Structure formats: C-alpha cells, structure tokens
Fold this protein.
Amino acid sequence: MLEVKISRLELSSPIILASGFLGISSSSMKRIINAGAGAVTSKSIGPKPRKGYKNPSIFEILPGTFINSVGLANPGIDEFINELNEMKIHNIPIIVSLFGETIDSYRKVALKAENAGACAVELNISCPHAEVSSIGINPDLTYSLVKKIKKALSIPIFVKLNPNVTSITEIAQAAERGGADAVVAINTLAAMVIDINTKRPILSHGSGGLSGKSIHPIAIKKVYDLYKVLKIPIIGCGGVSSYKDAIEFFLAGATAIQIGTALYQGIELITQINEDLNNYLKRMGYESITELTGVSHNFKLQEVPDF
Amino acid sequence: MLEVKISRLELSSPIILASGFLGISSSSMKRIINAGAGAVTSKSIGPKPRKGYKNPSIFEILPGTFINSVGLANPGIDEFINELNEMKIHNIPIIVSLFGETIDSYRKVALKAENAGACAVELNISCPHAEVSSIGINPDLTYSLVKKIKKALSIPIFVKLNPNVTSITEIAQAAERGGADAVVAINTLAAMVIDINTKRPILSHGSGGLSGKSIHPIAIKKVYDLYKVLKIPIIGCGGVSSYKDAIEFFLAGATAIQIGTALYQGIELITQINEDLNNYLKRMGYESITELTGVSHNFKLQEVPDF
Amino acid sequence: MIDSSIKTVEIKNIKEECKNIKTFTFNSERFEMKSNLQKPKPGQFVMIWVPGVDEVPMSISGVDDGNWKITVKNVGECTNKLHELEVGDYIGIKGPYGNYFSFPDNTSAKIILVAGGFGTAPLKFLAKEMLKNKYNFTLIQGARNQEDILFLEDLEQFDQNYSEMVFCTDDGSFGYEGFSTQQLEKIITKISIKEMKTTYVYTCGPEKMMYRVFEICEQFDIPLQASLERMMRCGCGLCGLCAIDPLGLLVCKDGPVFDSNQLRAMDDFGKFKRDFTGKKIPID
Amino acid sequence: MIDSSIKTVEIKNIKEECKNIKTFTFNSERFEMKSNLQKPKPGQFVMIWVPGVDEVPMSISGVDDGNWKITVKNVGECTNKLHELEVGDYIGIKGPYGNYFSFPDNTSAKIILVAGGFGTAPLKFLAKEMLKNKYNFTLIQGARNQEDILFLEDLEQFDQNYSEMVFCTDDGSFGYEGFSTQQLEKIITKISIKEMKTTYVYTCGPEKMMYRVFEICEQFDIPLQASLERMMRCGCGLCGLCAIDPLGLLVCKDGPVFDSNQLRAMDDFGKFKRDFTGKKIPID
Ligand SMILES: Cc1cc2nc3c(=O)[nH]c(=O)nc-3n(C[C@H](O)[C@H](O)[C@H](O)COP(=O)(O)OP(=O)(O)OC[C@H]3O[C@@H](n4cnc5c(N)ncnc54)[C@H](O)[C@@H]3O)c2cc1C
Ligand SMILES: Cc1cc2nc3c(=O)[nH]c(=O)nc-3n(C[C@H](O)[C@H](O)[C@H](O)COP(=O)(O)OP(=O)(O)OC[C@H]3O[C@@H](n4cnc5c(N)ncnc54)[C@H](O)[C@@H]3O)c2cc1C
Ligand SMILES: Cc1cc2nc3c(=O)[nH]c(=O)nc-3n(C[C@H](O)[C@H](O)[C@H](O)COP(=O)(O)O)c2cc1C
Ligand SMILES: Cc1cc2nc3c(=O)[nH]c(=O)nc-3n(C[C@H](O)[C@H](O)[C@H](O)COP(=O)(O)O)c2cc1C
Ligand code: FES
Ligand code: FES
C-alpha cells in the first residue's frame, strides 16, 4: 500500500530520510532503511571537507522544534564516495544531497555522486550559509543550475526549495522548466534565539534554520501552493513527527515525504509511521497511499471574504 | 523602568496590544490598558464594514501556536469612530491599525482615525487577504503608500511588516524612506492545516497566518536583521508569551513589543510580564528597559564556517 | 490550559428532540488529546465545526463517560447543515470553553432554573449534576407550544424527591399558559422570607427572557446566574467579538455564565450585541 | 522525552581537582524546566556551552540535590576558556543525554571499575551510587603520575567495607607502577572460577585503554560496560557524527555506555572515529 514512485525512483515506503540527519555514515543510513524508510538522503555534500559552524549548532526551542546552523559541515565528495561504495554493496537507495561553490562545482559533485551509485541527487539551493545561497531565491539562477546538472546526469534530479522567499512557486517553476524531476519542500526557516542571561545569540553563527513541529503548517501551505502549479512530483518535508503529518502532506499534494528533526525521538519512529499509515489507509478504504495526493484540493474554499 | 518612547509616543510600558486581538471594542481595550499595557492597537480597520471569512477562522495548532484567517473583519472606520470617541474620553493611547482598497482609501481611513483621536496609525500592508496584499511585498508600493500617508497625517505612522518575503529589510527601508516613524515586525506566516479525517483544509479560507510561540524565533531573526539597517525604532511582534520573549526582542533590537496570541491565557499575562520585566532589569542592574535595545549585536558571531 | 485545536470526531448518535431540535452525541476520547482534556461542566460550550459550512458555539447538554452531547436548534445555514448530517459523519470540536454554573454551598438551598428554548440544554445538564449532588430544584421550562417542549422523556425520569418540573407554553398547549418568567414570579412570591435568603436562580434562554428573570431576581434580591450568548469567532478570548460593554467582559472566557453583580454592571445586557463585523447592534 | 533546549545557569562552585582538571557545580533547578528534567544517572552526559567559544560533551561527575557537577580537563580552546570562568559566570546546559551504566542484579556481585584520566569522572559518580545501593566494588584509577590522580579526598571518604581503591601511575609516584589494565589483569586472575561468573567490569578512559580492558574481559568472559567518546555535534541523535560502524550505533543516544555484545560488533572500537566534517580518522 505504501509504494510510491517519484520520477523513475520506486520506493517501498514514502518516508525518506531528510538531508542533514544521520546522513554521513553508511552504517546509520543502513539502519534507517532497516527501520523502514523508502530511501535516505545524505547530508549535503560539497566539493571539499568542511567543518561548518562551531557548536552550539543544534538545539531545541519548543517541544519538537529545533534550530540549527550546522553550516554544511561535510567530509567532501571524495571522502564520501567511500560511504557511497559501501551503500552500493548493500543496495541502499541513496539520494545524494549536494551543493557547490559555483554552478560548475555543483556539476562536478553531482557527477561523482552519480558515478558512485547515487539513485538521485538533491540540489541544495536553499542553504543560507553557502556562497551559492543566492540561487534558491532567484528563479533565473535556479533555472540555469538545474538545466546544467540535468544535461550532465542521467539519474533523477530533485531540487530542495528555500521557504524564505516571497514566491516559492516561482522558484519551483523555474526548477521544473530547467528539468527538475521533483522538488523537495521545504528547507528550514531563518530564525534566531537569544539567551537573556548572557544576552547573546546562542548559535555560534547567530542565526539558523527552524525545523520540526513549528514549521509543519508552513510547509503544508507551500506544498499546497506548489501542487497547484507544478507537474513534477513534490516531496513534502518539514515537521513530520507522526502519520498524521505525513497524510497532511499527501492531501496537500505530496507524493512522498521526508523526515528529519522528529528522529530525535529515535529511528523506530519510521517503523511506527509506516504502520500507522497502513492502518489509516485501511480505515479510510484506500488501496494505495498515492490515491491521497492532492485530495484536499477537491474541496472548495471561501476565496472572497463576506461583507 | 519600563517607560519607552517610540517616535513622539511615550508609553508607560513597552507592551502594546497587537492588532486583531480584542481590538474592536473600547471596553476590551480599556481592560487591556488597566492590565498594564502601554498602548493598544485596534483591529485593522478598513473603509467599510466587513465580515471577513466564515468560521473556523482561528484555532490552535500546537500549544501556544495558532492559525487564523479572519479576513480583516471589521465594522468600518465610520462605525469604529464611536469606539475611538469613547476611548478619547478615557484617555486611552490607541494606535489605529488600518488598511484600504487603494492608496487613497488608506489615506481617508487614516485621516478619520487621526481626527477621532488616534495617537498613531499602523499601516497594515501585510494582510494576505486584502486587495492591497501586493503592497507589503513590494518596496516601491510601500514607499509610495507611506509617503502619501505621511504627507496627510501629523501623528506617527507605523508600518506593519509581512514576514513572507525574501527580504524584509528591503521593504522596511522603503517604509523608512517614505517617512515611517517605526516598523512593527512581524505579521503572521502563511500556513495551512488539513484535517486527515475530512481531508479538507480546516480554515474556511483554506490557508491562514501562523502566530504565537512557533513564530517567535523567526520574528527575532527579522528584528535582528532590521536593527542592522534601520534608524527608526522597531516594535517586535510574534510569540511573546513571557518576559523572556520580550527581553529577547529588546536584545535583538526592539524598542517596544506587541502581544497577541498569548492572551488566550488571559489578559493578566500583561500585568505578569510587566512585573517580570521589572525584576529582570533589577536583577541585571539596568535602570531602564531601553538600555537593552540591540545589546545582542555587541557580540561577535562566527560569520564564516570552519574548513 | 485549554487546548484550542480543532479535532474531528464521528457523530455517534442523533436524537430528534422536537421538530427543530436534535441532540448529537460524539465520543471525545477520540480527540486523542494527550492531557488537559477536562470533563466539561454545565454551562460550558464547544465550538462545532460543520465541515465546509461554518463553526458555531453550542452548549454541552450532557456528558456521559467519554460521550458528550450538544442539542442544536436548526435556525440557519450551519445548524441546518448540521441537522442534515448522519451518524458516522465528521464534525470538528474545539473546547470545552468558558466558565460554568457554580453550586450553592448548601444542598438544602432553594434552587430555581428558568429555561427557554435551546437554553434548556445547559440547564438540563446542570439539573442532572445537581441531582447527583443531592440538591433540590425546580426547573421551569417555557416554550411556544407543546411540540417545542424539550427533553420531556429525560426530565420525567428525574428523581421527584429532589426535582420539580414546571412547564409553560405561550398557547397553553402544555403546562401553564404564559411565560416562564410569570411562573418564576409566582414561585418566588410563595417563598418565605427566611427561605428567600437561600434561594438561587439560574437561567438560560432568549436574552429578553433572561433580562426579565434578572429584573425579578433584583426585585427580590435573589442571586442569579445567567448564561449569555454573543456572536463568537474564536471562543477563546482572542477576537473580542463577544465583549460586553462597558467592562469588556468576554462571554466566551469570563462567561458565558455571569452573576448578578456582573449583570448589573452590563449596559449591553438585554440590549446590544455585536455582529460578525464587530458592529454593535440591538438585540431583537 | 528529553528536553534538548539550551538553558544558561550560573556556575556555583569551582574546585581544582589537579593541575589541569576542575570540577564545576551548577544548580539545575534554575533551568526552570517545566517537567521532564530527570535526575541524571551515572554515565549520562550534558552538552556544555561556553558562551562565545564552543559547546562540548561532558560527563556528569556528581549530582546532589539540584546541583550537578562536571569535571573538566583543560585540553583545548573550549575547556581552556571554561577553566578561566569564575563562580557567577554563565554556562549553557543541554541534556542530560545518553544511556547509563546498569547495575548487576545482585549486590554481592564482584565489581571492578577501571578509570583513566577524566574518565574517572563518571565512574566516581557510578561508585557513589553503588555505595548507596550497597554494592561492593574495586575502583582502579590509572594516571600518569601522582599529580594527576583525581578525587583523592572524595575517594578516601568512601566506606571501606564496600569499596577498595587501587591507584597506579605510569611513573610509580603513587600506588602501583604501570597501567590500570595490568592491575585489572592481576585482580581478575585472583578471582575464583565461581566468583568469575558474577564479576562485572565498568570502564571509562582513553579508548586504547578501554580496548585493552575489553580484550581482557573477553579473555575471561567477563561482561563489560564501557563508556565511549566520539565527536559530538548535537548530542541527541540527529547529526550522526558519533555513529560507530558497522551498526551505526550512536554514542550520544545508543551510548555512551555499551556492553560487551555491542563492543564486539564494533569495527571502529579502539580504531576509528569521525572528525567534525564527518570524515573517518584513526584513533591515536
Ligand atoms: C455560548 C453559546 C452557547 C450556545 N448554545 C447553543 C445550544 O446549545 N444550542 C443551539 O441550538 N444553539 C446554541 N447557541 C446558538 C448557536 O450558536 C446559533 O444558533 C448558531 O450559531 C446559528 O448558526 P447558523 O449558521 O445555523 O445560523 P445563522 O443564520 O448563521 O445565524 C442565526 C443566528 O445565530 C447566531 N449565530 C450565528 N453564528 C454565530 C456565532 N459564530 N456565534 C454565536 N452566535 C452565532 C446569531 O444570533 C445569528 O443571528 C449558542 C450560542 C452561544 C454563544
Ligand atoms: C560522552 C563524552 C563525555 C565526555 N566527558 C568528559 C568529562 O567528563 N571531562 C572532560 O574533561 N572531557 C570529557 N569529554 C571530552 C570533552 O568533550 C573534550 O575534551 C572537549 O570537547 C575538548 O574541547 P576543546 O575545545 O577544549 O578542545 P579541542 O582542541 O577542540 O579538541 C580536543 C579534543 O577534544 C575532543 N573534542 C572536541 N570537540 C568535541 C566535541 N564536540 N565532541 C566530542 N569531543 C570533542 C576531540 O577529541 C578533540 O580532538 C567527553 C566527551 C564525550 C564524547
Ligand atoms: C541539524 C540539521 C541539519 C540539516 N542539514 C541539511 C543539509 O545539509 N541539507 C539540506 O538540504 N537540508 C538540511 N537540513 C534541513 C532538513 O533537511 C529539513 O529540510 C528540515 O529540517 C525540515 O524537516 P524536519 O522538520 O523534518 O526536520 C538540516 C536540518 C537540521 C535540523
Ligand atoms: C486572530 C488574529 C487576528 C489578527 N488580525 C490582525 C489584523 O487585523 N491586523 C494586523 O496587522 N495583524 C493581525 N494579526 C496579526 C497579529 O497582530 C500579530 O502580528 C501576530 O499574531 C503575531 O503576534 P503574536 O504571536 O503575539 O500573536 C492577527 C492575528 C491573529 C492571531
Ligand atoms: S469569541 Fe472571540 S473573544 Fe470571545
Ligand atoms: S552527536 Fe549528533 S548524533 Fe550523536
């Protein structure tokens, strides 16, 4: 019941590990697959090793809501290929999230990932810390980047969208035109926490990205809006911590979902959500989770206020 | 210790009632002032009566986090003048939040508010439902609107900012250039909730604005960024539910704060926060809350990631 | 703190109380609220979402294990659609909200409940709780005619050692002819001066009726608790639509039940309410 | 569920344990956490934020009413700055995190704790709890020389009916000359075969030392619990930096305490860790 297809990618479960969570070692990612995920996304990988920002770089603000400024810490693609090779052996469906310093550097990293066995790449054009942070807020740059990568690769290309923009649909449509096979919505929301005793921002970088429960209703709205304008599939991401959150993404228009922050509860959560999704589908009389995609759009809303 | 000044407005407490909360009747607003608020902001008032969107239009999503799509329901400025007259008698410092269908209609409503005794107006350019929703996301329109109103009025003009934009500083700077006396940051974040049993969006309008606890760290980030570029004062708004949240706004760069959603706990919260603010200032050895404004900017952050 | 989220539940049972009034039962355990789901008390209300239509306040008319009841008069778009729903259909629930009727300290107090129309709903719930707690009371129910009398079956099963039922109809087709307020006066004038000191009146119904009850109670110096209605948007003290001048009391949060002191201080009581735009309009 | 927020607290007390090691006490009640602040157990750690510098994991070395202690060796930028702080300065706390040492079912079990360097911190805490629960144990502490011996005052006050302290130094300046692992072997070889069945070893210290302890325990088939260290970013199972191959066990969440079964399955144990980029590097 839970099988989904995103572009050419066939997954046994619609739950995908989001980028940045446990996605550095093949051993952790194997564990996530064993827990029932349909695929894993790697930590965003760049052209060279990077320590990112000093700690504190991840903490909780409200129950289930975190802020982070990891700053794209990653071992670099050349090192990461060791992990990819290991995963190839175990046949683990891995989407390599990646970024570059220039469009060409994106392309080089993507090619290495494809050659090492990635089943798809996810272009991180939404990292607020990278030099390329301007891409994800600019439709023209997004279009050019996606088009270049599309030409170079034969595996599917996902584009991870930045929610901190006036019009996410404009960026997504540019990605679609450039040849993206799917979009992932959303990355984190720019945020900050200041400690009132020391009077300083807590994150070493000052500001960071909000993830988890708080951003879920924002992500739902973005997916709903994207579904109205896109033809390519949408992968919902942001604040999934139960099957209900996942269903909401499907009803809004998603074809699959990613899960990240909620894994602080333990990776068994993935197993639980799969089970709960199955039960929901049975209770509601569906045969496949794909039937749910976009269903909320069938209902008429009040467009114009009453006077 | 708690006195603050925003432009020419002198307030006995930095806590201002946010627009949309209990701000239709003079009786409720009097109660808010008696609880210790420095000023109240009215519900956004337009040129004519408006019922807004049908219910459900306000509900809670997470503890202390609400979503709403009231749709600018208001009795119209001509009716609201009765309440303003009543407030004048009791000497209640009221900021009239307002909107119009055109720039000229904004101006007319603003003039009526000024004549009826408003101590300031707050331009709602961030209402996603109004016909003018395009203003708050466009620096040129923002500039023109503010400039027009500025010319017409002699009381201070606040501009309420929309956080759903790529660059809030750009809009704020346009408002400043137009002659705004202060900005209020932030209005709600676009969001949506879908019920998994009925499979439909719950709000009658479908999507709405997120307020309360979840948006606080986002609002802090916006105020922090605004403080770096603006000369006019910033009024922090979003998720204040304790003195800590208020202090955080001051440290980020605010001169006063607004409180809305947290009042579901009861308006005595305002009295409590005033008391807690006083205690904090004493404990930390400050003589005035104004000393806190922008203090977090004194600390150096890690700008560039480690490699 | 009250959870103000909207949870959808299936309607478990529907009972036609009279021509235009139905009682809906739903299971609140299905809300799956983690904690603070409190058992509602008489006088409290919930916001009822009829998907695709509207969301309106409804008093809780009964509670029984995890099952809550509301009793709804079909008066307009939303209640009309609600009346069309069937067992198994979903409605959304937000609440329970508001304060509740408070009981006299002494169970031997003389208690009179004055109910009109669907205002009988919270008073029936109150009466049940009073019985449980061994209070004596008289319930006066006024209606237009016999067909509009509510909960007759239920009320007849009340223990008559503790409760007395008085009915009156405008046309005299059931019980006394005339208004419930006339019956209230009749009863009060029969009370001894000593007893008068421990007499308490509770009322819910059309505001004009409640205002008359208030006048009678004031005349005899009897403490009153009245459950008011106002237009409600949020139900939880945020929107301000339900504010009553000049104190700004909120029906959804400070009420819906107000006592004599509060009622006395209300300029609006019996006279003004606000429409959905927030404009003050006269009560018809 | 653990609260992963960062709360700042004032340092209440600082004690110099030896040349390079200080114990910091802070009051955790000031966290003002609403609920789930659990009393930490021996083996658990906290993330300590030194404002303006860094945030690093530190084992809890003692708990006493609302006061928690950490014992910190000055080894680099963050710990150096921490050593410069004074009573009244603020540090941030996140946690407590991780699992903890589990006690044998039987209080008459033979227990040996093998501590090296600041790894003595959690084992002192464990020893204290064992005493409270009437377990008998031997604590072997290894150090470079006399000056590096930790908690001597504290340890001397332990009830000698239940505890035995064995010290050893590389240069023989205090206690036995040589490594703690040599003392462990010496003690184990003296244990009767019957007693061996109820012998349990706990260790914390440099990983190479712990690996040797593991080898010894494997040889004699004694169950071991070892508290490992890895580079940590989040402390709460999200970033994956502390994963140990090939099972992907997380030191911050599945550990830091691992038992013999888990240690046996670790290719990385004693050999590899990850640096802050996530790259695998050899353990020196
Ligand atoms: C605290 C409280 C408890 C109530 N308890 C009951 C009850 O137990 N049983 C019952 O049948 N009715 C009850 N009502 C009244 C009920 O809310 C209205 O009958 C219902 O809202 C009508 O909605 P409609 O769409 O069918 O009618 P409409 O045609 O929309 O309106 C008819 C009238 O209903 C009232 N109304 C409409 N919308 C609202 C609203 N959002 N808030 C308040 N009033 C509204 C107005 O007076 C309006 O003129 C209660 C109202 C309040 C405030
Ligand atoms: C579970 C656990 C418990 C610990 N308990 C204690 C204790 O009780 N007392 C004590 O003195 N030390 C303890 N440590 C080690 C302590 O975290 C490091 O000494 C400290 O991080 C050094 O930071 P620095 O900036 O001073 O040194 P740096 O110069 O930054 O680094 C020196 C070494 O410290 C380690 N280190 C640095 N940053 C981290 C990090 N974020 N996570 C893990 N290791 C890091 C690395 O091995 C590094 O090579 C513990 C570590 C872990 C993982
Ligand atoms: C600690 C952390 C690290 C992250 N790292 C990345 C990353 O490297 N690349 C990326 O595209 N997104 C990254 N994200 C964003 C997540 O992939 C995801 O978009 C976001 O957290 C929302 O999903 P969630 O609420 O399920 O966590 C990171 C998020 C967190 C909390
Ligand atoms: C029910 C509701 C109604 C609102 N109405 C208005 C409004 O009319 N005009 C306006 O500028 N902002 C309005 N807002 C936004 C608030 O003024 C405020 O910007 C936002 O709620 C964030 O503050 P808070 O978290 O303290 O509530 C409304 C918010 C809510 C929840
Ligand atoms: S209904 Fe909104 S304040 Fe009472
Ligand atoms: S430190 Fe992040 S997962 Fe263990």
User: Anything to note?
Assistant: Residues 4-52+70-188+212-298 of chain A form a domain with the TIM Barrel fold (CATH 3.20.20.70). The helical segments of chain A are 26-34, 77-89, 103-115, 139-152, 168-178, 216-229, 243-252, 268-284. The pocket of flavin mononucleotide (ligand 3) is lined by residues A 18-20, 43-44, 58, 66, 68, 70, 72, 97, 124, 160, 187-188, 211-212, 215, 237-240, 259-262; D 238-239 (CB under 6 Å). The longest strand of chain A covers residues 207-212.
